[in-house]
Amino acid sequence: MKITQSEIVMSAVKPEQYPEGGLPEFALAGRSNVGKSSFINKMINRKALARISSKPGKTQTLNFYLLNEALYFVDVPGYGYAKVSKSERAAWGKMIETYMTGREPLKAVVLIVDLRHPPTKDDIMMYDFLKHFDIPCLVVATKADKIPKGKWQKHMSITRRALQIEDGDTLIMFSSETGLGKDEAWKFLTEKMNEVE
Question: Which residues pair with 141 in a beta bridge?
Fold first, then answer.
């Protein structure tokens, strides 16, 4: 899919602030600093629509990016960031859960993990949460360019095993530097967009 138009249209913390109109939505989940902003920017061919922060834990709202006036990427707060108070983390958790379990136009969640390291406890919990609520899911293992090509498959199987990825779920290797996996990710998202309920 070629994105010719992209803008951040709103930040929301509760359902009445979500955009109306029923366009398909894809939520992007992952721990702080895993590369969600870089993933968004690579997917939409923009250098800095999603701001890449050196300070993890910066996204504290659901940020809706409107693409081609046809769909939304929804960036949710990163999890697993230690410097945020427990009560703040609980509030984010509640906000994310409310959105993911009750949002009609949500077509799938893109779970972004770091290919260089085994998935964290939080990654595993997020995947289990999506499975529990039967939310379609694409797992994107990013930062592939930071690993020698010969080790890619080894790291992919570590990720697959740790998350216990179910048959039928897609795991894609991705690099926001080289664009590896971008077409594959768009193929998955486009298919989900076109699925008839």
Answer: 113, 173
Report field, pTM of the whole predicted structure over 0.70? yes
Cα dist. 141→43, 49, 116, 136, 150 in Å? 14, 21, 9, 17, 16
> Which tens digit of pLDDT belongs to each residue from 91-119?
767 888 899 999 999 999 999 999 999 99
Which residue shows structure tokens 């609980």? 90
pLDDT tops 80 at residue 86 = no
| Nearest alpha-carbon partner for 46 in 7, 72, 78 | 7
Give the whole-angstrom CA distance, residue 98 versus residue 63: 15
pLDDT of 23-69, one tens digit each? 999 999 998 778 888 898 899 887 766 554 444 445 578 889 999 99
Q: Per the structure block, which two tokens stand in for 91?
A: 């509030």
